[in-house]
Give the backbone structure.
Amino acid sequence: MSSHYEAPIREPLVLGDKSYHDITVDIAKPIEGKANKNWYIAFTISLIAFSWGIGCILYTIGTGIGVWGLNKNIGWAWDITNFVWWVGIGHAGTLISAVLLLFRQRWRMAINRSAEAMTIFAVFQAGLFPIIHMGRPWNAYWVLPIPNQFGSLWVNFNSPLLWDVFAISTYLSVSLVFWWTGLLPDFAMLRDRAIKPFQKKIYALLSFGWSGRAKDWQRFEEVSLVLAGLATPLVLSVHTIVSMDFATSINPGWHSTIFPPYFVAGAIFSGFAMVQTLLGVMRKVTNLENYITRLHVEYMNMVIMLTGGIVAVAYASEFFIAWYTGSPYENFTYMSVGAATGAYGWAFWSLILFNIAIPQLLWIKKIRVSFIGSFLISIAINIGMWFERFDIIAIVLSKGHLPSTWTRFEPTFVDVGVFIGTIGFFGVLFLLYARTFPVIAQAEVKSILKVSGENYKKLRDGSHE
Amino acid sequence: MTYNRCIGTRYCANNCPYRVRRFNWFKYNENSEFDFNMNDDYGKMVLNPDVAVRSRGVMEKCSFCIQGTQQVILNAKKEGRKVAAGEFNNATACSSACATGALVFGDVNEEKDPIVALKEDKRAYRLLEAIGTDNNVVYQVKVRNTEEA
């Protein structure tokens, strides 16, 4: 499906003097070799954070939501902030693998596997929060339309919280199938290289009996295209529906018609930032510098600049409308003069700084192609996008219609512990993935080696260099 | 509120413009951490036996004493008559306890109920009327002497 010629002025996507076999060896190395000390350190830290999170979750479920810092006026805070933050992070994977596949962007091939893994692991974390934030999580299955004999118990199709259940479960299942389909030839590669019978058995199971025949490849291409077509609308629908948790409500600041496109842009913005963060670490740790190049980093930064720009325009529009309505209620929404100068001014300005100001540095080409610069900016965006959701939820709820209900939210150690726990859980999953899964779609990268490999380009365009 | 069906997402409380909803953050019933002298059999005698004990993790709000209004309807039905005008005023705990008539409860669909005149009165207003919640609680503005200071 891809053309066989690439202009000489385009930078190559695979660096170094690589043959097909070199790619196989490079991708299989982290799986077949032993983990280094850094991996064990990172894994231990993640595991401790994860265990701490499990403790906090069990404490919450055992004692009650009262162990969080919520009160009668602020019914959501870190719980739903974390939920939306993780769902947003889980947006880049499908965009990279599905939308960029349809647009035939070859640079996706080096990053799609890990971006999708990140998506799936992030959606796991996101899915935890709606369950544990319930007062009675043991009844969580009531959100599913299961025929039952409990009398008049049935889901409320008018509620956006129910739409969330469908949107996120659909997204998770389609992403998982899409990810696994792409993994089949790579698992088969590991199976064929495995020496230990146990490993061979496991990878044989995971590769679903991939044989490498032409028919396998043809079906593989077809199903990838079909799944990309199915997954593309999901990129837009999931965060649209998450935004409707707020947009269909009646709180000033939540009840906003621009939320769906604005949230989708914000999700892609934060998702790409997280991919940038993770790959910045991974390319170093697993020695994949030849596959995840400065060109990949720059392309991702361009997506970040575009979606970040959309988010900035949305903020400006929200700020303007809050003032333009002349409504005193609108003056206390998360994007308003009231928020900028009020008790949550620090959260407001953190959002502006991390999400709008710092990413503007990417206009400078030197920073855009720099690994360390992109890594630091991606961390800032991760923080900024967390503040965006916190501001939307906590600032809006802290200043309701009646001044008698104005209050503040103070997190407890449990709020913090649960959040840190999900970061640890995410780390545990990702680190295990990096040791057992082919972290780059090697079969796909091989398909572009002769078109966009540095050595092959030199051979072809030698006279231009 | 249907307590039995509530899973406690607190979405309703977040959207309540009046913030009148209250959440059961903990298990308050028979919990030594929350001893309001109602953990023993004597203390429990002050509790209304007609009201369900709300479990941990459910939302609640004033139900206008649904058990009391239901009682009025059932009594009238048993006696083969219609509910008399003003009869509901004794159904809710707050209005039945109020001796001065500052709190009145009634059926706005029953023309002869005293509540109708109070609701139609020019002093009547509702809190946050502009947001169109069409709420059931009607206040009356304070009467002030604006003629002389």
Q: What stands out?
A: Chain A touches chain B at residues 63-66, 70, 72-73, 75-76, 130, 133-137, 139-140, 142-143, 152-153, 159, 161, 245, 249-251, 397, 400-402, 405 (CB under 8 Å). The two ends of chain A are 28 Å apart (CA to CA). Chain A has 17 helices and no strands.
